[in-house]
Specification:
It is a single chain. This protein is an alpha+beta fold. Helix content is about 25%, strand content about 25%. It has helices at about 5-15, 15-25, 95, 110-120, 135-140, 155-170, 210-215, 220-235, 260-270, 330-335, 360-370, 390-395, 410-420; strands spanning about 35, 50, 55, 70-75, 80-85, 100-105, 125, 150, 175, 190-195, 240-250, 270-275, 290, 300-305, 345-350, 350-355, 370-375, 375-385, 385-390, 405-410, 430-440, 440-450, 455. The strands form 5 sheets. Strands 7, 8, 9, 10, 11, 12, 13, 14 and 17 form a 9-stranded mixed beta sheet that branches.
Length: about 475
């Protein structure tokens, strides 16, 4: 791997010649593979695995990775994170598509440790630069029950990928939006927590993505640190005083990292908090850098700040009144949910949505001022006189499985279903909408019409890999 001369010069100045040499050597090695288990899925299959040399059962996070037959070892700072000894074909594992686990770089999982340290009560949170969804799905697992997350991504195509991953994760306490930071003008003093994994020069991605080396330049670094400050400054007013701001990048240089954190603290008003890593992790206490020659993971930077002051900013525009719900909600929809009493069901453009009632005001505010891509649980779409259950419902932790006939499929059939191929259901399968499951985990719906079954898996999600 040939690294840019300016990068070598900058990092040698920052780390010293000896440690830069260690970094460069580490970047020439294969990148480790790690996953994070979804402990919130309703049914988790048993997985016997080895942690180091000890055979043990992962009691609270048991999940069988059907294509993975390798040793697992724990990610030290994330209870649900595990390294794999080799990288399998995740695309061809049905449990990956069922949302049983997420493939995430281990360094980024440090957010788990930070959230467990600083978030003890239910919060309203914002993940500002959320795609493809690693930190959002992690936050949905770690935030206290009763929390709500807005996961935002400014690029529409990436926002769609974010929505897919959020839906598969199954937690309904989330709104996915497609907006710039300045679009959140109406959300002054709304958020208790903001996660900002800012777009950066990508130095920490050199090992995983060789194109990031080609795209790197000092000019790009300069552009990035300025853009990062713009994002933070435009979103800062939405954080409550005393709220937690988590700033991170996947780059090494201090312009985008330490200097930006110092600027946030001084200019916007914040106290830099300790990330409180354990000594054996090889990390510093405050602004925490992850280097691949020090830890098993990629390049990453994270810092935690508590907001101490805010210049008052008035909302623009007039408050809109809540729209009247004129559509009669079909009674059967509530029966499709477990704990349905905690949700409000609404209809928009022949699509029925269930959203946590406790945070309905935030959803209504988002609908007024933001581009909402997904929210809560999409239950069904009107098809003439019928209701077609949605993929979001199939993936949801709040799906009432007893509401639909279920057909369990094997691995080969599951892959065919995920490719949106035609299905041959058992002859005794009732007509109508059927839930397709693999090892007890829902994959989606099919409509049995007797002589054949229509595959309802979303075409845009289908497996294309052979």
């Amino acid at each position: 791997m040939t690294l840019p001369v300016d990068f070598e010069r900058t990092m040698t100045h920052f780390l010293g010649k000896e440690e830069y040499t260690q970094l460069a050597e580490a970047l020439a090695l294969p990148a480790p593979t790690s996953i994070r288990i979804n402990k919130q899925k309703e049914t988790i299959s048993a997985l016997n695995c080895q942690l180091s040399t000890v055979n043990c059962q992962l009691s609270t996070v048991n999940c069988q990775l059907s294509t993975v037959n390798s040793q697992l070892s724990p990610v030290p700072w994330c209870p649900d994170g595990f390294y794999l000894s080799e990288r399998p074909s995740f695309t061809l594992d049905p449990l990956f598509h069922a949302g049983c686990y997420y493939v995430q770089e281990a360094s980024s999982m440090f957010l788990s440790h930070v959230l467990r340290e600083y978030v003890k009560e239910p919060v309203v949170a914002l993940d500002m630069c959320a795609a493809p969804g690693g930190k959002s799905t992690l936050a949905l697992s770690e935030l206290p029950e009763g929390s709500l997350l807005i996961a935002n991504e400014v690029v529409r195509q990436r926002a769609n990928i974010l929505a897919e991953n959020i839906i598969k994760w199954g937690n309904p306490n989330c709104i996915v939006t497609n907006n710039y930071a300045e679009d959140f003008e109406a959300f002054s003093n709304v958020f208790d927590l903001i996660i900002c994994d800012a777009p950066c020069s990508g130095e920490g991605m050199f090992r995983k993505d060789p194109t990031s080396i080609e795209e790197w330049s000092l000019a790009n670094v300069d552009t990035c640190w300025r853009r990062q400050r713009d994002i933070v400054q435009n979103i800062w007013h939405t954080l409550k005083e005393g709220g937690i701001f988590i700033y991170s990048t996947c780059t090494y240089n201090p312009l985008e990292d330490e200097e930006n954190v110092a600027w946030i603290a001084k200019t916007l008003g914040a106290e830099v908090l300790s990330c409180q890593p354990l000594p054996e992790w090889g990390l510093t206490e405050k602004s925490t850098h992850f280097y691949p020659h020090r830890i098993k993971g990629e390049g990453f930077f994270i810092s935690v700040l508590r907001k101490t002051s805010e210049v008052e900013r008035r909302r623009r525009g007039k408050e809109e009144k809540k729209g009247k719900q004129n559509t009669a909600i079909p009674k059967e929809l509530k029966g499709w949910l477990s704990e349905g009493e905690h949700f409000t069901i609404m209809e928009t453009n022949e699509t029925f949505l269930a959203f946590p009632t406790a945070h309905l005001n935030i959803y209504q505010q988002a609908k007024r001022s933001l581009k909402v891509i997904h929210a809560g649980i999409e239950l069904a779409i009107s098809k003439g006189k019928n209701l077609q259950p949605s993929q979001s419902l199939a993936m949801s932790n709040n799906l009432n499985k007893k509401a639909f006939p279920t057909v369990e499929v094997d691995e080969q059939q599951a892959i065919a279903y995920l490719r949106t191929e035609a299905l041959q259901l058992p002859s005794d399968t009732p007509k109508g909408y059927v839930l397709i499951t693999y090892q007890g985990h829902p994959l989606g719906f099919a409509k049995n019409i007797g002589n054949r079954a229509n595959n309802l898996y979303p075409a845009e999600w289908r497996i294309r890999k052979k």
